[in-house]
Amino acid sequence: QVQLVESGGGLVQAGGSLRVSCAASGRTFIVYGTGWFRQAPGKEREFVATISRSGSSTLYADAVKGRFTISRDNAKNTVYLQMNSLKPEDTAVYYCAAASSWSRVPKEYGYWGQGTQVTVSS
Questions:
Q1: Is 10 exposed, middle or buried (0-12, 13-18, 19+ CB in 10 A)?
Q2: In whole angstroms, what is the distance from residue 6 CA to residue 16 CA?
Q3: Are 88 and 120 in contact (CB under 8 A)?
Q4: What does the pLDDT look like over 50-60, one tens digit per residue?
């Protein structure tokens, strides 16, 4: 099993920045890709970004490309999502997820955190 715990969400004004973190524990050696997804009220969960185990490969959704940066610190088993130039449409619950593969598809991720709320006010 892999346990994931997100932190760092909150309320920020449009144009501001926020960093969310995802701390992993357990059988982390089985994880290849660690991703961030988000879900706004009444909408489906959507892919935001993912990073490979080494950190050498990343993928971003078009909606966040150039504004968000995913990174990791393997010594701390932690993945970060730095969010800049935030927009009200970025408001959602942000979830960290881990997979043994490399994917943008939520169902490919077998381990999920509890989520952290990010609210961007206009």
A1: exposed
A2: 20
A3: yes
A4: 999 999 999 99
Strands lying side by side in the sheet with 68-73: 2-7, 18-26, 78-83, 68-73
Identify how many contiguous H helices and E strands the chain contains and give both numbers.
0, 11
List the beta bridge partners of residue 71: 80
Provide the greatest CA pair distance for the chain. Answer: 41
For the stretch 104-120, pLDDT in tens is 999 999 999 999 999 99
CA 68 vs CA 47, 63, 71, 119: distances in Å: 12, 9, 10, 15
How many degrees, rounded to 5, is the angle at CA 95 between CA 100 and CA 30? 20
Whole-number Cα distances in Å, 104 to 29, 31, 67, 111, 119: 20, 15, 18, 14, 23
Q: Are 21 and 80 in contact (CB under 8 A)?
A: yes
**Please, are residues 48 and 35 in contact by the beta-carbon 8 Å criterion?**
yes
